[in-house]
Design a protein that fits this description.
alpha/beta; Leucine-rich repeat, LRR (right-handed beta-alpha superhelix); 6-stranded mixed β-sheet; 8 helices
């Protein structure tokens, strides 16, 4: 889905963009949008305080530099390739919570990654769900790399337009394949970001041995999507879901009895 004005207002249950305080587009919401413009509407959200974009294909953070009231930003497991993207977050005065782990920019050296983030965002109180300490902030001045310029953009929007068809398709296919394989840990990270209780292992791993890997991944992905959407429903919506689930369960049990 493209992150349009209508989509933002619907997700945030707001009447106008300047009334949006919390925006949750977690887990696949932007999966099939491959251009940096996918979150450009963030430039029009001056009062947003909490943004959840985890588990999408986001690579460009430039639109976020207009969100001057932003205090919490969840970007785990996207396609952010360079820590220079932090340049766009350095002048957000209220940013206190950032979750950036599982992005390519984290690299293979966790210490260097954390020190670089904290050197450039010293006002953070929590990074990747870990509390930031005074000792870390002092060490970041020594071990962290200071970012003074935005990342150098690849010429996707200019010289490479003729080749974006096949490359974008391949990238989308790879991302879709990756996001179809939610693990128990992945599910519980999503639930934690949404303020929900974790799923017990015995409830999560309830697939029949006869199921193929493909069916298992598909079922798991659908389950996660439903869990995320349930949080957006009001009492009337939840009652409709409850009635639908009840009818569906009855139909499934009737079918099982007939098969026996």
């Amino acid at each position: 889905m493209r992150l349009t004005r209508a989509a933002v207002l619907a997700r945030a249950k707001a009447a106008a963009l300047d009334g949006v305080r919390r925006l949750n587009c977690c887990a696949n919401f932007l999966l099939f949008v491959s251009l940096p413009a996918q979150i450009s509407i963030c430039r029009d959200l001056p009062n947003v305080e909490v943004i959840t974009f985890s588990v999408n294909g986001i690579s460009d953070l430039e639109p976020l530099n207009q969100c001057q009231n932003l205090s919490e930003l969840y970007l785990r497991k996207n396609n952010i390739t360079s820590l220079n993207e932090l340049f766009y977050l350095k002048h957000l005065p209220r940013l206190r919570v950032l979750w950036l782990s599982e992005n390519p920019c984290c690299g293979s050296d966790p210490h260097r990654y954390r020190m670089t983030v904290l050197r450039n965002l010293p006002s953070l109180q929590k990074l990747d769900n870990q509390v930031v300490t005074e000792e870390e902030l002092s060490q970041a001045l020594v071990d962290g790399e200071e970012i003074t310029a935005p990342p150098a953009r690849r010429s996707v929007e200019n010289s490479c337009r003729e080749s974006t068809g096949s490359s974008a398709a391949e990238s989308t296919t790879e991302t879709a394949s990756e996001l179809l394989s939610f693990s128990l840990e992945e599910t519980n990270k999503i639930r934690e970001e949404l303020g929900m209780k974790p799923v017990p292992r015995d409830k999560f791993s309830s697939f029949s041995p006869r199921e193929t890997d493909c069916n298992r991944k598909k079922r798991n992905n659908v389950l996660n999507a439903i869990l995320l959407l349930m949080k957006e429903l009001d009492t009337e919506g939840l009652e409709i879901v409850q009635q639908t689930v009840g009818r569906r369960l009855q139909a499934c049990r009737k079918k099982e009895l007939q098969e026996e």
